Structure formats: structure tokens, C-alpha cells
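Morning run. Coffee first, then this:
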Amino acid sequence: MNILPAFRMPRPVTRTRAGAATVWLAVMLGAGAPALAQSPSAESVVAVVNGNKILESDLQVADEVVGRNLLAREPVERRESLLKMLIDSILLAQAANDRHIADEADLQRRAAFARNQGLANHLLTVIGEQAATEEAMRKAYEEVVVKAVATEPELHLRHLIFMIAPPADEAAIIAAGQKAKSAMERINKGEDFAAVVADMSEDPVTKARGGDYDWRGRGEMGREYADVAFKLKKGEVSAPFKTAVGWHILKLDDQRTRRPADYDKIRDRLAALVANAAQMELVDKVRAQAKIERLDQTNTAEKGTVGLK
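And here it is:
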């Protein structure tokens, strides 16, 4: 299973059962979205509108379809807004039928789209849940987290910096460079790096702690900074070098292999990763097995060749 492309897959919606009123609402409003967990009493009747029952499960699906667009956030107020919306949808649908203004072909298209989307999301949910086993998540942890971290060390650095204030004219660059040169001379004569930092560095944050720059990975540094830092040996001090920020001198205090995040702390993210990978794998498989004819592209190609020999 290919894990990394799984980040492309959207999260599928929660499984629910829709009543007649909710189907009508879904047809009018289109695609659904993730929402709250389904009520245990999903089949209980909430209201009856001209003989049409509205179930607790209808409220759940309505929340999935339009819940994110509601201004009401307090549960009681939110529920009341959804129920009024369902009631109005039934009444307006009946009024449309009474006036013979319903576009049946359009309704069928919307119903087909909503049904296909619901089935697709339900299938993806099931596939994701089945794929996210403890074994699969452990494997993803080793492949994505542990191995990736093990290939990149972290450096414990100290740094000394002389800032180049914008606009960085030549005189400012030269002046900062001269300060760095003087600091380097003191270090080369045997002065303690932290003492020179405390006396000369222009970074107030790290200056107070002897230039301690903490543990950093390559991705947490600029390219020029990292190119110098990762060539140092433990205890070694770099020559002064310039970046867009200023002139720097680095000292490597220590080096270690990066520690991966604890499995239990990222278990939910791993479950989503494995589930999404399985979902993408299924999508790719059904596409590969399907016979898909793109008539729009054929027509476009034919129009593009009109008059050409």
C-alpha cells in the first residue's frame, strides 16, 4: 500500500440513514459534509408534517448537509434551526407539486448525484475503517515516521550573529563582517565561545544563554545556515559566514538522531493516514478497471482539427 499519496483524499462523511424529507433537502442543497455522531434513537419521530414523518436520523443528515453553514452553534438552537428547515422543505416541496412547477428531470439528476455521492462516501468510510488495523498503523509508523526521522540528525548549536540592518548597503555588510572577524579572533585565541557571545552577539534571545540555539533539524534552518552547520564536527567552530540576516559564527555542541513522535500520541493521525491510503488505492483501482469514454475531449479534439490536413 502506498501511504504518502493518501494526504490527497478528503475525509469521508459519517454514515447515516436518510428519511424522505432529508432526501428532498439533500436534492435541493447538494453535497454533504462531515458532522456529528448519529443519535442512538435515530428512528424516533421528531415531527409529522402533513402526514410526512421527520425522523431523528433526518435531522442528523440535515446537519451533515448544511450544518457547517448554520450560524447557530448552541445545540438546542442548532437543532431547532435544522428542524424548521426540514419542515419548510416538505411544505415547499408539496407547494411545488401542487402548482405543477417541479422539474422532474432536474430532480432526478440531483437525486442521482446525491445517491452516488452518499454511496461513494459510505464505501470509502468502510474501506478506511477496515484498513486502519493496529498492524497497518504500526507499519505506517515505522515507514513514515521512524525511518524518515532516522535519516536526518539534529544538531545542538550555539551561534553568534552580527545583524545587517536593511537596507543592506555595502558599508553595513563590511562593518558587520569586521565584528565577526574580531569575534573569531578572540575565539581562536582560546576565549570561551559563550563568553564571546555574551559580550558581542547581536541576537538578544540567544545572547542571554551563551548563544544556545537548541536542537535543530535541517528543515528548521535556512539553506546557507544548514550547509555550514552540518559540516561541523562536535566541538568545532565555523568560520564567519554571511546570510541575508547577517554574519554568523556557529559552534556544534552535540549531535543526535532525531526522536520520532510517540506512537500513542499520533495514533489518530496514523489511522487517518492508513485509511486515506486505502481509499486512494480503491479509487485508483476502480478507475483502472473502468471503461471511461470522454466524449467532451473527443469533440474538442475534432473541433481543433477542423480545416487541418
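Confidence is low (pLDDT under 50) at residues 1-40, 305-309. Good start to the day.
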